[in-house]
Each structure stands twice: as structure tokens, then as C-alpha cells.
Amino acid sequence: MSQQQDIVLSGIRSTGSLHLGNYFGAMRNFVRLQETHTCYFFIADYHSLTTHPAPEDLHNNVRRILAEYIASGIDPEKCTLYVQSDVPETCDLYLLLNMIAYVGELERTTTFKDKIRKQPGNINAGLLTYPVLMASDILIHRAHKVPVGKDQEQHLELARVYARRFNNTYNCEIFPEPEAFNFGANLVKVPGLDGTGKMGKSEGNGIYLTDAPEVIRKKVMKAVTDTGPTEPNQELAEPIQNLFTILDLVSKPETAAFFRDQYARCSIRYGDLKKQLAEDLIAYLAPIREKFEQIINDKEYLGKVAAAGREKARASAAKTIAEVRRAIGINRL
Ligand code: TYM
Predict the structure, then answer these.
(1) What whole-number distance in Å separates Cα of residue 136 and Cα of residue 97?
(2) Are 85 and 133 in contact (CB under 8 A)?
(3) Same-domain pairing of 26 and 95
(4) Are 15 and 158 part of one and the same domain?
(5) pLDDT digit string (tens) for 242-285?
(6) Which end of the chain is less crowded, N or C, counting CB atoms within 10 A of the terminal residue's CB?
(7) Could you tell me if the CB of 192 is within 6 A of ligand 1?
(8) Same domain, yes or no, for 66 and 181?
(9) CATH number at residue 172
């Protein structure tokens, strides 16, 4: 299938400001893909309800993510940029896919098991069926490529299962099997600054795209390190590897090579590495932050973008849902 025909879709939850993980795991690919593909990008506000945000916070977060999408280079003229809850057809499909999704397979997903550990007081059914809603987002536009970070891999697997199962159950070929996508060979996992694990919105270990320079400096200088290498060419411990991973993303190759060499010779000064990393991050993020400041309070503009996106997304979704209903046998009497 040619690139023109391949449909791309991805979403980001409205749970707070976007961080480097969101950008390098997902958005950087969105910006490239919008040049060559038919793209749908959206704000997953329904998905953020599993943690019961206050209505005011939810509203502000949706507006914020919309502005951050645009500030990061997503062009509403080149793609369909919309809010998930503006497209009720997604919920129709969610209900229908729930009938072919098995509780056992949902209970086995790592993200669900994680949530059970993290929020034992609020294990709602929305958490269990989170991957079904995500599959609905993808399948409602019959997407082929889904640019996401490593943490979404298992959800994508389930979306493939539901596409296949639906087609088999109803003897049709409505859904292509969507694939997790990254321009590099592997899906990306951006680490946090706290030594271990991935950068996350709830982990408090992130650099946000709109962080002020002094905030970035403070966060980077506080990043976890170790006592330093004790013998030449020693393997990098995880917290140090993490700093290099981020350096590789935002700094010049020579900069990363310089500090790697210093590490190998046991002459590295983590303070210097951090100072350089902070300055490179600040320079990298400056254009995003500037654009964000320009548009975040322009409610009229953001409202227009959302309305145009809603219209385009609903037109595409309506076609799919009509075919789905027909395949299932839900016809007008
Ligand atoms: P969310 O909002 O948690 O994250 C949005 C995107 O950012 C990526 N990401 C990362 N990538 C690399 N390293 C990290 N540390 C990191 N942290 C986050 C995520 O992989 C994701 O691509 N369930 C989704 C939202 C969603 C969706 C969809 C995505 C809802 N429906 C349909 C694709 C298609 C989520 O929670 O993403």
C-alpha cells in the first residue's frame, strides 16, 4: 500500500503537560508523518477520566494539550486534529468491540496490573476496558500506522486482535490490522531523571515541553547519578545511561561523544555533563515554549481548530460505523 493510502492515527491523554517522553516517543513522528500521510491526531480526554479529574482541570488540560500539539509542530491544516469526546462514533464502536473483547485478556495487560497496584482504591471498569476504547480510537478511522512509545505496545497488540476478531466474527474486511510505528527500528522509551524507569506524567521525573529555563536547570542538576566510574571503559550504570539517552536526543553528536569519552577515561564530571544537557534542552525546547505562549490564551483560535477537527473526524468515523453496523446486522427497520 502506498504511503498516501496508509492512514496514521495517534492520541495523547489530557492528564497534564507533555514531557520529553511524549515528544520523542510520539509527537516527533507525528510531525514527520503529517507531511506524507493522511493523519488523525487527537486528545484522549475520555481516557483521562479513569483517574476522575475535576471538570475544571479536565477542560484546561484539553486546551493545553491542543496548544502543545500545535506548538510542537502539528499543523491542523495538514492533519485532522480533534478531541476524542467530540466524536461519539468512537463510543459506539467501543460498545460493539466490548462484545468481542474477553475479560481474561484485558485482566492480563501489564498496564491494568500496574494500575491495580497504583490505585487500589479505584479499579474501575474503564481501566479494565481502556485498551478497548483505545482500539476504537484506532479502528474508527481504520488506521494502519500508530506512532506511539514503547509503553503502548501491548495495547496495539490488542487493537490488532480486535480488528482481526471483528473481521472474522462478522465475515468482513472492514478493519486493517494497525501497527505500532516509529521511524527508527524500535519503539522509543525516554527515561526519567530519577535513575530508573520511564519518564511519566505521574512519576514527577520529567522535563515538560513548556518548562521555563530555570526549572529545566534545576531538574537536570538534581538528576540521579552515581559516584562515578572507577575503572576505564566501565559499563554505564542505569541513571548515567539515562542521562546519555536524553543527551543523544537533544544534543549534538559530538557533545555526547565527548562525555562518553570522558566517562571511558574516568575523568567525567557529572556537573559539567548536566550543565551542558540543561542548556541543550533549553535551546531545543525554546521554539515550542514560545509558540505555546503565543496561542494558549487564544481561545477563539483553539476553538476553531477543535471545531474543524471535529467535523473532519466525524465524517471519517461515520463511514466506518455505518459499515460496522451493517456487518453486525444493526439495520434500520
Ligand atoms: P499517553 O498520554 O500516556 O502518552 C502519549 C504518547 O507518549 C508516549 N510516551 C512515551 N514514549 C517514550 N518514552 C516515554 N517515557 C513516554 N511516555 C509517554 C506514549 O507511548 C504515547 O504514544 N493510551 C494512550 C493514549 C491513546 C492512544 C489511543 C494512543 C488513547 N487512544 C489510540 C494511540 C492510539 C496513552 O495513554 O498515551
Answers:
(1) 7
(2) no
(3) yes
(4) yes
(5) 999 999 999 999 999 999 999 999 999 999 999 999 999 999 99
(6) C
(7) no
(8) yes
(9) 3.40.50.620
Q: In sequence order, which residues have a C-beta less than 8 Å from that of residue 54 and are 6 or more positions away?
A: none
- Within a domain: 198: no
Of all residues in the chain, the percent with pLDDT exceeding 70 is 99
Does 138 contact ligand 1 (Cβ within 6 A)? yes
Position 203 in a domain: no
Say how far apart CA 25 and CA 92 lie, in whole Å.
Answer: 29
- Residue-wise pLDDT tens digits, 208-224: 999 999 999 999 999 99
Q: Are 216 and 207 in contact (CB under 8 A)?
A: yes
Q: Give me the domain span that covers residue 153.
A: 3-188+298-328
Residue nearest to atom 26 of ligand 1 (CA): 11
Distance 11 CA to ligand 1 centre (A): 7
What pLDDT sits at residue 204? 85
Ligand 1 proximity of 180 Cβ (cutoff 6 Å)? no
Query: Same structural domain for residues 228 and 106?
Result: no
279 lines ligand 1 (CB under 6 A): no
Residues 52 and 172 in one domain: yes
Same domain assignment for residues 51 and 146: yes
Best residue for ligand 1 mutational test, from 14, 40, 141, 148 (most atoms within 8 Å of Cβ):
148
Nearest CA to ligand 1 atom 36: 13
